[in-house]
Amino acid sequence: GFPRTLGQAKALDRICELDLVISLNIPFETLKDRLSARWVHPGSGRVYNMDFNPPHVQGIDDLTGEPLVQREDDRPEAVAARLRKYKDAAKPVIELYKSRGILHSFSGTETNKIWPYVYTLLSSKIPPVLSDEEN
Q1: H-type helices in the chain, by residue range?
Q2: Does residue 42 have a cis peptide bond before it, meaning omega lies within 30 degrees of 0?
């Protein structure tokens, strides 16, 4: 997400005025498991997730047949450290937007269960885009 730090939030304030901020509260273990299951094809940057978007052959890129790699920062111990650091850095950002009354938080572990609530919020704030035929 962005902004991740108070410095980034202040920089963003200088270029635009936010009227809506979404915070997704996902349990630590869920995030750690998902990020740790990520593997990439170095040549293309193609990303696979061994749980919900695995390659056809484990450890092999679908298109090239070349080996996939796991980035150092996607290893479980590195992910745990990154998440702890992010939580500490993001806390003041969350508090800032909460104090402005523009923070909307959603909790869960599955995108398809959280998304309808996020969509409803966004739909209530953003007018629908009409096609040329509807205008």
Answers
A1: 6-15, 28-36, 76-99, 111-125
A2: no
CA 57, distance to chain mean position in Å, is 26
Can you tell me the distance from the alpha carbon of 108 to that of 25, in angstroms, rounded to the nearest whole number?
A: 7
The amino acid occupying position 56 is H
pLDDT digits (tens, 9 = 90+) for 71-123: 999 998 999 999 999 999 999 999 999 999 999 999 999 989 999 999 999 99
Enclosing H/E stretch for 39: strand 38-40
Please name which of 127, 135, 110, 100 lies closest in space to residue 24, comparing C-alpha atoms.
Answer: 110
Domains of the chain listed by start with CATH number: 6-20+27-100 (3.40.50.300)
Quote the pTM value: 0.75
